[in-house]
Amino acid sequence: MQRRNTSSSTAVFDLLKAADGALSHEMVESRLRTSVNRSTVYRILNRFVEDGLVHRVVAADGRQYFAPCTDCVPERHLHDHPHFHCVSCERVECLPQELHIEVPAGYRTAECTTTVSGYCSDCNTAKK
Amino acid sequence: MQRRNTSSSTAVFDLLKAADGALSHEMVESRLRTSVNRSTVYRILNRFVEDGLVHRVVAADGRQYFAPCTDCVPERHLHDHPHFHCVSCERVECLPQELHIEVPAGYRTAECTTTVSGYCSDCNTAKK
DNA sequence: GTTGTTATTGCAATTAAATCGCATTAGCTT
DNA sequence: AAGCTAATGCGATTTAATTGCAATAACAAC
After folding, report:
1. How far apart are CA A111 and CA A66, in angstroms?
2. CB–CB of A107 and B84 under 8 A?
């Protein structure tokens, strides 16, 4: 299927690229200057994931967060670094660590997500 | 709060202990011999997690899976090994590997889950 | 620039996982 | 056996995400 560039989809992609971490659908929608329909945002994000432009991270709260790919090439589309999810400010950020997870023989890995939940330094000090 | 042992809660706990991996709420409910209400199963599982008897794993599908704790003591309640989630048969199993994930200074870790999605050996060979 | 095809959008309805309020039931203590 | 209250069942509700369908708008071809 041929893809088309719309103002909404480029706005979403720019948002993701400018963000300092992964964004939930809600964050994307609220940060958009122009109002874009809820389902449209979901479809745009799903399209990005499908096209390999964006990674989808499911945090411990069961919600989806989206971050643009870096260092990904078509042959090797991995996202094997851990993510930190602050349960207070909801921010999701990538941790600069590489994981090597081995699966038993015969298994086939499709994707891998690691999520650490807790409090980021800002929220941690604010709590005290 | 004082806990009480009911036939339902012990049945659920026995199921989890006997299972070869983490079970979703749906799996628990369908494997129970006696019919237990949906909300009750959820509440029983949440109670187990709250009491530190069971770990909750959120897979890439956004659903919750539950597995009894092993090697956990009150002072150190961790579940830092990866889980494999077969997207075909829905089975979730623990991978015998220990992860060491470092968070930036000032951060506080509450929990950590790693989920590898893909096909287990059974489903992988069945596909071919 | 105009036209035609069809990907994309907006809207409302829907699905699915998980939670909650409340009256009833049943564990545990005394 | 009695009393307190944790746990249950039921229905309604919340929330994230998806879907069907008609309307709109990208993009290619002319």
Report:
1. 14
2. yes
The whole-model pTM stands at 0.89
Distance CA B120, CA B114 (A): 16
Specify the long-range contacts of residues B32-40, CB closer than 8 Å, at least 24 apart: B32/B8, B34/B7, B34/B8, B36/B8, B36/B11, B36/B12, B40/B8
pLDDT band at B94 (very low <50, low <70, confident <90, very high): confident
Amino acid at A113: T
What counts of helices (H) and strands (E) characterise chain A? Answer: 4, 6
Q: Which of A64, A66, A86, A89 is nearest to A16 (CA)?
A: A66
**Secondary structure E strands in B39-107:** 54-58, 64-68, 82-86, 92-94
A115's tokens: 């999520």
pLDDT digits (tens, 9 = 90+) for B18-29: 998 899 999 999
Biggest CA–CA distance in chain B, Å, is 53
Neighbours of A18 (CB within 10 A): 10
Which residues of chain B does A101 touch, with a Cβ-Cβ cutoff of 8 Å?
Answer: 82, 95, 97, 99, 114, 116
Sort A48 into a burial class: Cβ within 10 Å, 0-12 / 13-18 / 19+.
buried
- Tell me the per-residue pLDDT of A55-85, one tens digit each, with 9 for 90 and over: 999 999 999 999 987 765 555 555 578 899 9
Nearest CB to B58: which of A58, A87, A97?
Answer: A58
CA distance to partner chain B, nearest, from residue A33 (Å): 29
Opening angle at CA B103, ends B85 and B87, nearest 5: 10
Chain D nucleotides reached by a protein CB under 7 Å? 5-12, 16-20, 25-27
In the predicted model, is pLDDT for residue B74 greater than 90?
no
